[in-house]
Input
Amino acid sequence: MPEYTEYAKWRMWTRKIPEEAVEWVLEHYHNSRPAPKRENALPTVIYVGEYSGRILKVYVERDTNPMLVTTAVWQGD
Output
């Protein structure tokens, strides 16, 4: 079970992304890749998968255990 930053919880709420969707993608993702580097941000990995017919991208801080979700976004939104 991943942990969530407060920012991730807020963005998931505003984007109507349930925790169940995030956890599904983290267990069944199609691919993953490093996120573009941002100033003053720790390295992040993007996990991409399908949930309920939509593509979801889940951003996780690299090398965290349990995984720390920093945000999530539906593709196309």
Notes: The helical segments are 6-14, 19-28. The mean pLDDT is 96. The first helix runs from residue 6 to 14. Residues 15 and 77 are 9 Å apart (CA to CA).
